[in-house]
Amino acid sequence: MPLAKSKKSVGLGNALMNDRFGKGKGSDRKKTSAITRTNHATGEQYLVNEKQDASWVKMRSVTQQGALDEFLATAELAGTDFTAEKMNNVKIIHNDHRNIYLLSAHEERSVLGKHRMHKARLTVPRRPEWDASTTPRELDVRERESFLNWRRGLAELQENNDLLMTPFERNIEVWRQLWRVIERSDLVVQIVDARNPLLFRSDDLETYVKAVDPKKENLLLINKADMMTLRQRKAWAKYLKQAGIAYKFFSAQIAKELNELRDQEDEDEDEDDAQPSSSVRAGKQPVADASSSEEGNKNANSEGAAEGDEDTQILTVEELEDIFLQHAPEDAGADHKLQVGLVGYPNVGKSSTINALIGAKKVSVSSTPGKTKHFQTIHLSDRVILCDCPGLVFPNFAFTKADLVCNGVLPIDQMREATGPVGLVTQRIPQRFIEAIYGIHIKTRALEEGGTGIPTAR
């Protein structure tokens, strides 16, 4: 006998449909405080909150808000309209054409004045003084106390003066590696990115090196200089000389290409030595154009040396090592090896510079996979030892978060807002270059239409 079927239709699918479109939903919608209104001029619909909160709700103390709550509260105070587009997309309408994630010219000048005023407070944490009688426990306590005071000072500087700072290293163990590198090095080389040297340079680091020992020397090595034109190198050379900063231009990429070219030439010579009579039996004359190709790379490497002077020259590996040796202590003994400390931000090419120096010397170095957690000593030659410090992010000022994204300080994969960085790129790079590189046509709003005629992120 078949089972009787229920008169009521049950099931997960029906339950979900009833939950979404079932009875009572209309009454729930009526209870909401938001009312849909229509703009008759444009035909767009938007939501208006007509309900006023009770007085006791308005007087509630709010000491901390999440990102979304803060955004909605700010938008409500500013009287921003939210226009519904298609499904559930939300569009924020601004009456002006200014990007709220960037600073105006007046605001940028004001912030720059603050940066100059408080520049001296962007310090590197100092290692407390110690001697042979200091126990490891005492030194550890002193270091932690000094480091904590340093972090508190930076936090106070940022909060009390409404300043934006770049992310900086907060792990004392990494700073301890820097302290040790400075203490044992005769020359401290600060490697910076040529695309924005001042952002990656720490003024106070050079002061700290001299405070440890006045005999120690500083050198600013501007890596990736092949990305700069001769005119740009001349401008930077003039600025750095006027500021009294010892500097040199270098390109780890060009040095790498030269090393690979030399390796290829050595392999070709070995093959020719192994088969000396093959070309003779074939009646062919050997063609030796390797030296000419190497000369071409050297000419590209030292672009500007013929047109200007050595102040704008991009050094080769051999020339860079000669610069290191020029900073050797005068009172050092014959058996003393020059110790060169290499310091810099992550991703400025510090490792590439070391690899270029090692590759040119054919030095065998054990591979160290992963991020370097401790400083390493590399015997470059019988006269030079390299002290490689782990990548360090020094504290510095910034104008906006868009600056941090464009300078590679903040990773792009963590970016939640793109109009700021894109707007900054359109401000700094001419429209014709962007269109030529990407093969696109950027539409701009003319002055007659209320625009500026300049590309924006929109």
TrEMBL record:
Bias kind Acidic residues: ranges: 263-274
Keywords: Cytoplasm, GTP-binding, Hydrolase, Nucleotide-binding
Main localization, broad class: cytoplasm
Keyword Cytoplasm assigned: yes
Domain called CP-type G: residue spans: 175-395
One Pfam entry name: MMR_HSR1
Localization in the cell: Cytoplasm
Protein's UniProt keywords contain Protein transport: no
GO biological process, one term: ribosomal subunit export from nucleus
Gene Ontology molecular function: any one: GTPase activity
Taxonomy, superkingdom: Eukaryota
UniProt biased composition (Polar residues): 290-302
GO cellular component: cytosol
Residue stretches of biased makeup (Basic and acidic residues): 20-31
Region (Disordered): 14-38, 261-310
Name the UniProt record assigns to this protein: GTP-binding domain, HSR1-related protein
